[in-house]
Task: structure prediction
Amino acid sequence: MAEILAYAGMDFLLLDHEHGQGSIDDAIGQLRAIKGSDCVGVLRVPTNDHIYIKRALDAGVGGIMVPNVNSAAEARHVVDACRYAPAGIRGAFGGMRAMNYGFNPAYYEKSFENTLVAVQVENAKAIDNIPEIAAVEGVDVIFIGPRDLSATLGKLNQFDDPVVRGQIDRAAQAILAGGKLLGSTAMSGKVAKDMAAHGYRFIIPGSDVTLLGLGVRTTLADARG
Result:
C-alpha cells in the first residue's frame, strides 16, 4: 500500500503509530517500499516519548510528528529528542539504518537539518499556547488535529460547527502569524485545494483506509448505477 501511494504521487506518507498498529519494523519495510520514489516517510509517534522518537529516527524516517503537544516546553522536548547532544538528548548509535548501518558517518552532521519536526495541537489549551509553541526553534510544522479538537469541545466530528470552525481558524491564524508551516487533514481533494489557498502547506488528504474505501464505494456505485 505504501508503495502504491508513493508512486501515485504523494509528497509524503504519514506512518501512523498513534492510531495505527504498526511497529518500527513495519515502518522500515514501508520506507524501503517508497525509497525509489520522491515520497518522504513521516512517522507519527504514539506519544511525546524521546525513546520512541529516537527509534523512529534511527530507522530512517524523514520526519517526526508528535500528537497532543500543549505547550512550548513539550514542543522543546520534541526538538531535543531529534537532536544529538549537546544540543539535544537523542542517543547516538553507529550502526543504525538512517546512516546506512555505519557506512554514512556524515549523517550525524545533517541529521536534524534533514528531519521535519511537526507537532500537533488538538485542544483549546494548546491553541491558546500556539504563539509560545511557534517560538520554539526547530519546530517546522504545527498541525491542527480537528477530530480530537472537536471532541474536546464536546462536538466530536462536527467540523462545520461554528465553535469548532472558529477554533480551527483561530489556530490557523496563530500558526501563520508565528511563521511555522500550517498543517491539518482534509476530507477531500477539493477541501485540500481550498486549504492550500488559505495557507496550509502540510495537508493529509486521507488515510490508506479512507482512500481505499472511497475508491471501492465509488466504483461500486458507478457499476450498480
User: Anything to note?
Assistant: The chain is about 45% helix and 15% strand. The chain has one domain: 2-224. The first helix runs from residue 2 to 7. The beta strands are 12-16, 40-44, 63-66, 116-121, 141-144, 181-185, 200-204.
